[in-house]
Specification:
Layout (H helix, E strand, L loop, with lengths): L1 E2 L11 H9 L2 E4 L7 H6 L5 E2 L4 H7 L6 E3 L7 H13 L10 E2 L8 H15 L8 H21 L2 H22 L9 H14 L2 H4 L7 H16 L14 H15 L11 H14 L4 H20 L4
Parallel strand pairs: 1-5, 2-3, 2-4
């Protein structure tokens, strides 16, 4: 029995699979629309559209004949169950049976399924078909925070699920972008862009540069990024809509990395005090947002304990 993956282009079969097909006395396939059939026939392999029973298949193999069954996408459970029953009965002389995978999923192959599912949902779901980039923006923010929470909680199952939810946002936005009348792009354009960026910003991996420490890697990244962006200020590209502590820490990080001497605003008020704390945290290698969240969770636990509520 020959199995194939629908995530691999039809016709791309392993050499053992092609050898088995060419040496077979008969090749059968129950699905006349199987995507492999045109390529098998083009290669000179005759394929009969047939769905034999287990007994019929055993009979067809009599006399040492070899029969290859090209399995449908969901496999051939009725046939394999029938063969198992015949073998278990002890009353039938069984031919040699072999399950031969003709193509395998590559790493990341399930992403193709996600793209296909998203495409169908976009076309057929009354809610999803009406969504826009702006309408989905809040969900991207929510999912990113839920991912951070899963990381901080150390819950592996939750982490896997939240990574999926973040990935969904990427695929959803890319699917919407395909419909733009002026500047459409697809998930392949998104993936192609990030691949090119990663290769370009890692010359120590893909080029002739060397980097032995994380600090040297960061230097390569920042230098390459500066050339790409051609920014006028170290503050260019910092999203001002991010949470305040994170924003303050990011600004302080850019200033420190650039070697600039910039005094903090000497104004009065809680906001300026928080700015100073965020800059201090960044200089000490502490993420002020994460630190505040940890303290807030401790405060929440104290509140629940006072209320007599279990954690």
């Amino acid at each position: 029995m020959l199995t194939t993956s629908h995530r691999v282009a039809p016709g791309l079969l392993s050499w053992p699979a092609w050898q088995a097909l060419r040496a077979a006395d008969r090749v059968l396939c129950a699905d006349g629309a199987h995507p492999q059939l045109p390529y098998l026939r083009e290669a000179g392999t005759a394929v009969d559209e047939a769905a034999p029973t287990a007994q019929e298949l055993v009979d067809a193999c009599a006399g040492g004949r070899t029969v290859v069954v090209v399995a449908a996408g969901e496999g051939e459970p009725a046939l394999t169950d029938g063969l198992a029953r015949l073998a278990g009965s002890g009353r039938v002389r069984m031919p040699e049976l072999e399950l031969l995978p003709a193509s395998y999923d590559l790493p990341g192959a399930r992403l193709l399924d996600l793209v296909q599912v998203m495409d169908r949902i976009r076309a057929e779901c009354p809610w999803s078909s009406r969504q826009t980039h702006k309408g989905l923006a809040k969900y991207g923010i929510e999912e990113a925070y839920e991912l951070v929470e899963a990381i901080e909680e150390g819950d592996r199952d939750e982490l896997r699920e939240e990574l999926g939810d973040v990935l969904l946002q990427v695929v959803f936005h890319a699917r919407i972008a395909e419909e733009d009348p002026d500047a459409p792009f697809s998930i392949d354009d998104v993936a192609g862009g990030i691949v090119a960026k990663l290769i370009h910003r890692h010359p120590h991996v893909f080029g002739d540069e060397t980097a032995a420490t994380p600090e040297e890697v960061k230097e390569h990244w920042l230098r390459t990024k500066a050339i790409e962006k051609r920014r006028e200020s170290v503050t260019d590209g910092i999203p001002l809509a991010q949470p305040g502590l994170a924003l303050a820490a990011k600004l302080a990080s850019r200033v420190r990395t650039a070697g600039l001497e910039v005094l903090l605003p000497q104004e009065q008020g809680i906001g300026y005090e928080l700015l100073a704390l965020a800059a201090r945290a960044e200089a000490e290698g502490v993420d002020p947002e994460a630190a505040l969240r940890a303290a807030a969770r401790a405060y929440r636990d104290a509140v629940r304990a006072t209320e007599g509520v279990e954690k």
